[in-house]
Sequence to fold (127 residues):
Amino acid sequence: MIRGHKDQRSSGLASAGKRSTAESRFNALAALREHAQPVIDAHGTQPPLKLEGPHPVPLDTEATRLLATLLEQRNLSAVAHFNELADALRSTLGTEPFERMQRAIEDLDFALAEPPSRDIALRKGRA
Fold:
């Protein structure tokens, strides 16, 4: 064998082995999907899981103050920052106020979104 060149026979065996492994994985996934499909179908019609409940997500005071500042400055970074805080804001504000704030931010109406976030920042600062 010439140095730097693979033996075609060993290369072919490796390729056949990879093909065999890929086929066995494909078959295993197909079997898993077949067995899981009744469960997927049964749960696909149920409403999505709501994350609200007895375990609220803690709201970081500094992050909330930053959101209030970004909204006050009409800074577009407020949208991304709001998304990062969404779970904690929903837990703190409740569903309806959170959704009003979310709509205002999505509409880039930062003035409408500002008071609730400012209120949270001030409330959390006193706590």
Summary: The longest helix spans residues 8-44. The mean pLDDT is 74. Residues 68 and 115 are 8 Å apart (CA to CA). The radius of gyration is 27 Å.
